[in-house]
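Lecture notes, part 5. Sequence design as translation. It can be helpful to think of inverse folding as translation between two languages: the language of shapes and the language of residues. The source text, in structure tokens, appears below.
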């Protein structure tokens, strides 16, 4: 069995300019779906069992939850396409979804990571991260929920 990879799923509007509104991002989490654009660099690497942080980028810049990928990227089936509220025709299914309330500010996670490359804004919808970065976000989420 392969070790999971770790990613940030950066939920952005179809124009890619800004984060999805919070209610749309939360709806995707609750439906266990995330659209993945055909141009995403890590599209082919995403696999069932990978662990993801779900991120609402600028202007919010906060993690709204975490999940495990239940599928690799695939074209939506007819029933999945009916459920998916966005414009993407393909994506991944999410399992073991944990919605974070309160959300976790990226600034709080960045303060825990000693990395010159870590940042709050991404041009990509899928960003590969290290296990250490993933665990830092979980630790901040646990502290905020206490």
């Amino acid at each position: 069995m392969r070790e999971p990879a770790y990613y940030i799923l950066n939920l952005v509007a179809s124009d890619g300019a800004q984060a999805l509104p919070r209610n749309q991002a939360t709806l995707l989490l609750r439906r266990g779906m995330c659209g993945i654009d055909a141009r995403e660099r890590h599209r082919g690497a995403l696999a069932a069992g990978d662990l993801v942080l779900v991120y609402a980028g600028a202007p919010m810049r906060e993690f709204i939850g975490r999940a495990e990928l239940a599928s690799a990227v695939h074209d939506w089936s007819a029933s999945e396409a009916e459920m998916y509220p966005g414009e993407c025709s393909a994506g991944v299914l999410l399992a073991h979804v944990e919605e974070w309330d309160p959300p976790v500010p990226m600034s709080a996670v960045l303060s825990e990571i000693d990395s010159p490359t870590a940042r709050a804004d991404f041009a990509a919808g899928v960003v590969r991260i290290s296990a250490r970065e993933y665990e830092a976000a979980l630790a901040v989420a646990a502290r905020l929920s206490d």
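The translated text above is only one of many valid answers, since several sequences can fold into similar shapes. Residues 131-145 form the longest helix (15 residues).
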